[in-house]
Specification:
Elements (H helix, E strand, L loop, with lengths): L1 H36 L3 H5 L1 H6 L11 H13 L6 H10 L3 H14 L8 H4 L6 H10 L6 H5 L3 E3 L5 E3 L7 H32 L2 H12 L6 H11 L5 H8 L13 H25 L5 H7 L4 H29 L3 H6 L7 H11 L3 H28 L6
Antiparallel strand pairs: 1-2
Helix pairs in contact: 1-19, 4-6, 10-11, 10-14, 10-16, 12-14, 14-16, 15-16, 16-19, 18-19
């Protein structure tokens, strides 16, 4: 009895944590995954047609039963918003924007029980392509958004093929996102590793001052930091005016609305995520190892390469992982400081979610970020357990 009461108390203590994770972590992720593969726009307004057209061969105009089901659905759908279904069908075959309203009007005006000759009403109903689009969109689930997120689609035979050139640029933007995130990770590593080693080598107020310089940006809003770089990087900003005053350049350097500005601003914003893990690893290394290596004849570079760097590798991997994962999902900094050719995948997700209300595509692109992040976590966990990249 006492044991059962203790178990209940323990469960009550951790219940808020599980509730928080379920509401703010599991539920949003599940919603994103489900919306990326769900496609109920057509099936919800044309249920009888979706059930009847499933066995259609696709080789000729459907029989009278399928046509009657479509007429019945459109007659009932007079009070339902057909907009999402029309947009879904029109994305596959152009012409549904006028065809569906015309057919719905004819279905409502026809007497109850009277068949409507759809090919006679509009010759487009004699084209199997329009019926094939309805059949393809009748399923409640689809891989259409997942394929489109990487510029793929299905042809008339159902095979996965690349989209026509110029119709989508998601693959290009995804590659650009990973490239920018990789460059920023390398820049943060080039600055963060020496800085972390300097922090570990000092003590007292000097170390506190260096640590404060790293932590201070984290106490400032991301939008404020990005806006500050927006001002500093302008043609008449402090950086360009200083360079021209010193005679380094004759005119202002193009530092904003391009890739350079994005890298500079995001490196500054994400640098603490690189410095702190490396500092934690380097600070735990015994201070006697480097003098011991020097006493055995190793120069400074050899001691750094064979002793300090392998022991600091867990911190380097942690910092690189944090910086890269945060960088691939950044939105504000590239949107304010970058140009049209520097927008990352987060900007495309915002476009689909806010401007076109295409939640399926937004969820599919978000799923790509989720998969990449999960793979990175699993890879780092495997490398950490194996010890191969971390040992001396």
């Amino acid at each position: 009895m006492i044991r059962a009461g203790a178990s209940l108390r323990s469960a009550a203590l951790v219940a808020p944590l599980f509730l928080f994770l379920a509401v703010f972590f599991v539920w949003p992720l599940w919603t994103m995954i489900s919306v990326s593969v769900r496609d109920g726009a057509v099936a919800s307004v044309l249920p009888q047609t979706a059930a009847a057209i499933g066995d259609w061969s696709g080789e000729s105009v459907p029989d009278a039963a399928i046509q009657a089901a479509l007429v019945a659905d459109l007659r009932v759908a007079a009070t339902i918003d057909l907009g999402p279904a029309v947009r879904r069908l029109n994305s596959d075959v152009s012409g549904f924007r006028t065809l569906i309203p015309k057919t719905a009007t004819a279905a409502r005006e026809a007497p109850e029980g009277t068949p409507v000759d759809l090919p006679a009403l509009d010759r487009r109903w004699a084209d199997p392509r329009f019926w094939a689009a309805i059949q393809s969109a009748s399923s409640a689930y689809t891989d259409r958004n997942l394929l489109a997120s990487v510029d793929l689609t299905r042809d008339e035979a159902g095979a996965v093929v690349s989209m026509p050139a110029g119709s989508s640029a998601n693959r290009l933007i995804i590659g650009r996102t990973f490239l920018i995130a990789g460059v920023i990770t390398l820049c943060c590593l080039a600055i963060g590793l020496p800085y972390a080693m300097l922090m570990a080598a000092t003590s007292g107020w000097k170390r506190n001052l260096l640590l404060m310089a790293v932590l201070l940006p984290l106490w400032t809003s991301l939008l404020v930091r990005t806006a500050a770089w927006f001002i500093l990087l302008q043609d008449q900003g402090l950086i360009n005016r200083t360079l021209m005053a010193l005679g380094v350049t004759d005119g202002p350097l193009p530092l904003i609305f391009n890739r350079t500005g994005v890298v500079i601003a995001m490196t500054h914003v994400l640098l603490p995520f690189m410095v702190l893990p490396i500092y934690s690893a380097v600070n735990a290394i015994p201070k006697t190892l480097m003098p011991a290596a020097a006493s055995m004849g190793a120069n400074r570079f050899a001691a750094f390469r064979r002793i300090l760097l392998p022991l600091a590798m867990p911190g380097i991997l942690s910092g690189a992982l944090l910086v890269f994962m945060v960088a691939i999902g950044y939105y504000i900094t590239p949107a304010l400081v970058g140009g049209a050719n520097d927008q990352m995948i987060s900007s495309i997700i915002a476009f689909y979610a806010l401007q076109t209300a295409n939640w399926g595509m937004a969820g599919a692109l978000g799923l790509i970020l989720l998969v990449v992040t999960t793979i990175l976590y699993l890879l780092y966990g495997r490398l950490s357990r194996s010890g191969s990249p971390l040992g001396a």
